[in-house]
Every structure is written in C-alpha cells, then in structure tokens.
Amino acid sequence: MRVIWLLFVVGFAKRAAGLQNSDLEDSWDYSNVFSTSRNEGITFADLPGFTRSTYQRDHALITPESRVFASMPGWKNALTAHLISPATGSKFSMYLVDMKASSAAGTPPAGVERFVFVLDGAVKATLSSNKEEKLLHADDYAYFPADSANGLSSDAGAGLLIFERFYALKSGQAAPVNGSTAERPVLPVPGEVFALRKLLPSSNDYDFNIHVMDFRPGEALYVKEVHYNQHGLLLLQGQGIYRLGDSWYPVQAGDAIWMAPYVVQWYGALGSTTSRYILYKDTTEDPLEH
Length: 290
Ligand SMILES: *[C@@H]1O[C@H](CO)[C@@H](O)[C@H](O)[C@H]1NC(C)=O
Fold this sequence. Notes:
Layout: H1 2-16, H2 21-24, H3 37-40, E1 54-55, E2 59-62, E3 76-84, E4 93-104, E5 112-127, E6 132-137, E7 140-144, E8 150-154, E9 158-166, E10 177-180, E11 195-198, E12 208-215, E13 231-237, E14 239-244, E15 247-252, E16 256-259, E17 265-270, E18 275-282
Bound molecules: 2-acetamido-2-deoxy-beta-D-glucopyranose.
2-acetamido-2-deoxy-beta-D-glucopyranose (NAG) binds near residues 130 and 178.
C-alpha cells in the first residue's frame, strides 16, 4: 500500500513539474541488445556499482577498479595502494606503489623486512651499509633484511609490488637478495605441472618466500591446498578461475588475492595466454609459536 502511495506521489510530482517519461528522451538506442561488442568482451568493470572485488572471513579478491592510491608517510612523489595489510588478519602487507618522476621510498619501520618486485619502469635500489646500488627493471626484484638501511628511488617513474613483514626468526641471518625472475631456475614440482621459481633462498634464514608460478591455458593445480600458511597473490598475466573456500572466481591479470590460513585454494588457467602469478608464502616459522 505504501509503495503504491509512493509511486502515486512520484508520478504526481513529475506531472506537476510538467515532466512526462516521453519527454526525457527524443530518441532511443537499442543497438546494445544485439551488439557485437559482446564478442569482443564487454567491459563489465564500467557497470555502475559493479565490482568482482569481495572481502570474506578467510579470503579477499581485490580487482583493479577497487584500488585506492594514497600518499604514505616517508614516500616522496609516490602513491601506494595497500591491497593486503594486518587489518585483514594477515602477518604481512602487500601493496602497489606508483612511483612518479623523481620519487623515493620511505624507510620500512624498525624490524620490518621488505621485498620489492618491479612491474614497470626503473628503480634504483641502495643499501647504505655497503654503498651498493642496483638498477632494477620489470621482472627484477630486491629483498632487504630488516633494519638494513635500504632505499629506493626512481628518476622517470616505476610501478612496484611490495611485500613487508616483521622479521620473525630469532636465530636467522637473512642477507640481501636481488636478481631477475627470468634467471631463476625452474624447480621440480612433483605431481604438479606449473613452472615454479622461488625468488628467495629456501633456507632457515628467511621467514617467507616469493613464488612465481606459470600455468599454460588448461593447466591447473593438482593439489586442492589447505594449509596454515598465508598467501598474498597478484596475477601478473593471463586469466582463469581461482577457487577460494566455496567460491569460484573468474580472475584476470591485475587481480590480487588474500588467502588466510586454511582457506581451500585452487587455480585453473584458461584463456589464450600463459598465466603467471607472484605469491607471498610464510615459511620456516613454527605454527605453534606464531
Ligand atoms: C644485491 O645482492 C647482493 C648479494 O647477491 C648484495 O651483496 C648487494 O648488496 C645487493 N644490492 C642491493 C642494492 O640490495
């Protein structure tokens, strides 16, 4: 009854304003109904209010239209978008950095280790302890141990992915690491088909590792993993279906995923290009202690 009353009032108000529905448009365009743009891939991201992003108890999918860039204390001429942070229950941060021309990084807080992966542009990595300086391009990475007085700067701009966490190993001796993903060996993955590269040494001196995993279209994880480790993932190329808990998400390059401990996880690559993702995984820690 109330609805009918409301409709009546709205209709009355329109008429009072001299507005008829037919006055709102002179001509109508119905061509989208049979549009061939569907064959080229409709840009769903442009639909009002539509996003594939979701935040659940044990996982999150953060798609590019949901990124929010802001300035961060300490950083100069750079904007960061924190995709994962301890606010979600994670023990690490994962964020994108848009470094503009003449930009520089802020120093990580005391006790925090930092891993930098370059997505585009060029960035200069420095370690003041040994006056080392290294120019990193897309596909290159650098790991800075906690409290290592490190710096990042860019003359012409760069796009970065950064992982950070408080170093958790009491007796570990993490050393600086840097290099290029392409130069890392492909490691054996018994029972699986993907190509695996690890960007940090698999030693007890590091409390996390960064995996780069490639799947050709049609390839999938064999193990439907459930484990205590946490993950932060960025799909660098390709598209497929990511299973998280009881949800199955169509994903594509640029999508980020947070996986809490014990969430059911599985990926199947689809589309026409090789899928590549970069993945944070905590290691070495005794789950009883952390
Ligand atoms: C790069 O890694 C080497 C060890 O492989 C280290 O000696 C050097 O200081 C690192 N450089 C930077 C800028 O992190």
